[in-house]
Amino acid sequence: MSFQGHLHPAIVAGRILGWARDPADPHRRIELFVWFDGRFHRRLLADQHRIDLERAGIGDGRHAFSVAVPAQFADGRPHVVRIVDASGHQLVGSPQTFQVDGARLLPLERNSDSETAEVTLLAIAKNERPYIEEWIAHHHALGFRRFVVYDNDSSDGTGEILRNNSRLAGLVEVVDWPLAAYGPDKAPQRAAYDDALMRLGRRGWVAVLDLDEFLVLRHDHSVHQLLARYVDVPALAICWRLFGSGGLDRFEPGPVTRRFRYAGPARLAKSISRLDRIERIGIHASALFDGLAADELRRPIPDLSHLVHPSYRHAQINHYFSKSWPEWLRKRQRGRSDRPHGPAAIRLERDFARHDVTEAREDTVARHWPGTLESMAQLFPDALEQWRAAGVLGGRQGADAACP
Which fold has domain 4-105? Predict the structure, then answer.
């Protein structure tokens, strides 16, 4: 059997990378065999997704592989890796001689630069104009200084309101993401995040939040302070609190975080991940080269979509899923960005009742309100004046304005 492929000429984050596929059967995944210094190490399947392969027309892009350099070969001396298929045919670029310093394979140290490293906030948005200014101001107040927003064919001016605001220069990057960018058979959100991984680089952290999700810190004053305690984990999982309508049956002007105050626990989480450990950015959890996301109690979380015991000791993500009934109908109409276009992208009407949680009043977000108002004044003064004119700030500013 002949196959196409290539062994990457350099070690990346302590891993050997490459790809392989059968041109006669592009949907079949190639089994490969890895040898180090003439001794068999392991077998693997070339089935990982790489956006660059997909864009180059190499099948569906799911032909990549990565294998960690074993610790015993991280001694700074030359070693040889050889990768072959089941028939013994070698991958182009194999055998390859490499040298790896063991320091590159050690766990992350607590004295890393995470306290000063950039934390990017990544999102995809469609028709979020009523909410996006508050969302940016809230997270700006928490220390985020880079926002990357994919504008998914908004018709309400979501992208324009950001592009036309000179105060956001160097802070917010808007990426046009029309249907032509990803095609009708792909979910726009997943395709956008594949693109983002190449755009963001490999330094710092990335938080992936939707426009109805707000990071809330219970004790820290910035996202950097939170992450400083978790620099030895590749990704920090932060649990949802699900907010319902609170009985509101109409749209009202003013901040989402003040209009909806009743919530309950949810068995899902979102993650903030180290960019140098990400293989593919995910909606809830990114695929990592090594290790698992951990929650705030340092418990490894293999599946962020099914948490057995959510924890809210240090942080939470307020998820304002439904808002009021008219807002829910607009959300339902625009469809889901995590599904390809079509009937499957339309949410079920009964999803409103299923997510309309009003278990208890939850006002932890109020501690961030003074900072949010300061960021609104700095970045979106016109919107702040509209809030004042509508009387939704209680005629006061500062800490008192957080809790009317």
Answer: Immunoglobulin-like (2.60.40)
